[in-house]
Amino acid sequence: MPTFSDDPFSYIIIAILAIGALYVLYYQIRVRTRGIETYATVTSIIEHESADLDTVVKRTYDVHIVYRNQANETVEAILSNPGGAFTVGQRIRIRYIEKHPELPVCIDSEV
Q: Which among 39, 44, 28 has a CA at the least distance from the CA of 86?
């Protein structure tokens, strides 16, 4: 029976996942340090439930927001599972980069 170390495909999958995780971390840091700061309004909150093999229910949230970018255009975006408590109508501070205004990062939910 093959083991994990005998299967090079497993190493490829792990490498791809690690590269993906590093890119997400890099993007978050880049937006937080170089992004354009503005305020957004929470328009809706969507809850998702999933269960693992032990039937432990996990809840995640998509926080839908709307804001105006530097060109005064309205942008709708989703903060996926940003942590913290949000309410519809709440104003929050975000940062975004011009190249990807649809992928903002929440800076402060206590505005």
A: 44
List, run by run, the mean pLDDT of 10-residue segments along the chain (111 residues): 69 88 83 91 91 81 95 93 85 92 83 56
Radius of gyration of the chain from its Cα atoms, rounded to whole angstroms: 18
Tell me: do 66 and 84 sit in the same domain.
Answer: yes
How is residue 91 written in tokens? 């104003």
Strand partners, 41: 66, 91
Query: Does 67 lie in the same domain as 110?
Result: yes
Q: What is the pLDDT of residue 3?
A: 59
Domain count of the fold of the chain: 2
**Domain ranges, residue 68:** 36-111
